[in-house]
Amino acid sequence: MFGDRGDESMNYRIIDKEKYYRSGVYRHFTEDCKCSVSITARIDVTELEAYSRRTGTKFYINFLYILSKVLNSREDYRMGYLWQSDEFICYDEINPTQYIFHDDTETCTPVYTHYSSDYTKFYEEALADIERAKQTRDYQLDQAGHPNWFDASYVSWLSYDSLNVELPDGYLYFLPIVNWGRYREEGGRLLMPVTVRLNHAVADGYLVALVFRLLEKEMSEFCK
Q: Can you give the pTM of this predicted structure?
């Protein structure tokens, strides 16, 4: 499936488009019908909220860790496209770009946090990254310097029912874009809206829906 390894500093492998297991789908949605697919659903975060309170840890960072672990668990969620060389790639690892909102200026600052499967290491680094970001009001978005970073954005002001993220038709962007909102109580459980957007060339409804199933599975394991 994969060709020679790419530039070591970029941390990716080149995919042979003809041997890619979704080659027909890839061709169609990169040439005939460029589009993305997104799903919004509510996931049960009751146990994760209880775990966070019990351990004195931040629910937000705990969820960010679980989300990052899920998206790193399958190659399908680590795809990328290099427009300069028209190369279809799979990153060895992807990291979350989170955002900190400043109440005084009503603006956001991107926060680049490296993913680590080691929960304690990830938690400490994410917490430190957030505190540093609180000291600036600059947008400082650096996509060129962070090619294997996916967008993870918390919509903290409401528990929404739907959310759409649109990209230009001609822009082949394969990394996941994930948003989530405030959880709310329904039937004695805490349900949180999550929106997952992926390019249709690398994902269909099954792969998008699978993110939600994997989130629930990882949360259950995490809270044990």
A: 0.93
